[in-house]
Design the sequence.
């Protein structure tokens, strides 16, 4: 079993839609959690950190459920520019562990 | 701005060659990482280093070694390149600890082994 699992997608949604990505992790001792974004042929970049209390950054909301070992990302009012691959990332034993990513396509 | 620089964007090597991939960061970060990225498999950790001369195996270290003689430089070595090592290689660096430690990536090296 992979340490971090994500639905690979792709998610194909119209502009303005709300879309949710989920991620599960297997190591209950994992310390920190993030969502990264990767555009085609580019390197990954940090989108946002994920806290137990939940956090919001504009149209993006991240949630962490430690009991269920589950992380989510909600994107509201999708824009064409949101098309990318979204990577769930967990810090576990000082290692940065990536999920395989969920691809999002936002269509006009 | 943090800058992580990988020595080559594209590299073509022959089977059996010894290959060096270099990575340099300019923000005095303690942690450095090497990943490979393949379609459908995401980023897989090869090795990481949390200090000079320190290294830890990641999930797929077989066929690779690393060197960290200076804090700013982390080298990935393919002792004898094989075709199954054809991949995109990404280097990253971050501050130590696990709270809000954003990782910054280089632009990647696409290695083809023929």
Sequence:
């Amino acid at each position: 079993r992979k340490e971090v699992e994500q639905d690979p997608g792709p998610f194909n949604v119209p502009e303005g839609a709300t879309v949710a990505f989920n991620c599960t992790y297997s190591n209950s001792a994992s310390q920190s959690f993030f969502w990264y974004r990767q555009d085609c042929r580019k390197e990954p970049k940090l989108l946002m950190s994920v806290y137990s209390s939940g956090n919001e950054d504009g149209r993006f909301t991240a949630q962490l459920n430690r009991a269920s070992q589950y992380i989510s990302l909600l994107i509201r009012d999708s824009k064409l520019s949101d098309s990318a691959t979204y990577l769930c990332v967990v810090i576990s034993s000082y290692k940065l562990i990536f999920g395989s990513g969920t691809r999002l396509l936002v269509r006009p | 701005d943090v800058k992580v620089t990988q020595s080559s964007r594209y590299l073509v090597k022959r089977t059996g060659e010894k290959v060096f991939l270099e990575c340099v960061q300019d923000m005095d970060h303690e942690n450095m990482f090497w990943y490979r990225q393949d379609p459908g498999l995401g980023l897989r950790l090869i090795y990481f280093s949390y200090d000079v001369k320190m290294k830890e195996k990641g999930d797929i270290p077989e066929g690779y070694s690393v060197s960290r003689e200076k804090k700013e430089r982390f080298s990935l070595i393919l002792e004898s390149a094989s075709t199954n090592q054809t991949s995109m290689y990404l280097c990253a660096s971050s501050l130590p600890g696990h709270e809000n430690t954003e990782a910054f990536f280089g632009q990647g090296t696409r290695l083809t082994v023929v």
